[in-house]
Specification:
Helices cover 31% and strands 8% of the residues. It has helices at residues 21-26, 45-51, 60-69, and strands at residues 9-11, 14-16.
């Protein structure tokens, strides 16, 4: 998983996101390849919560990976 940011832009009658060349190459993305992604708004409660955890030794990215994988101990 790679975390990146993009700006939503008008694309015809739809909205579109761009992915940087570096990210596309790292993930081996090609035109028409289907991908899954999670959208977190800048003011999302999840992002605010994880922002409070900056002092932890475990990175936010690793915590989110563990949660998605079901490796989160309650």
């Amino acid at each position: 998983m790679i975390e990146c940011q993009s700006v939503v832009r008008k694309w015809g009658n739809s909205l579109g996101l761009t992915i940087s060349k570096e990210v596309a190459e790292t993930l081996h993305l090609k035109e028409n390849k289907k991908i899954n992604f999670i959208i977190l708004e800048d003011d999302s409660p999840i992002k605010k919560t994880f922002g409070l955890l900056k002092g932890w030794k475990t990175s936010t990215t690793q915590i989110m990976k563990d949660m998605r994988a079901g490796n989160w101990d309650e």
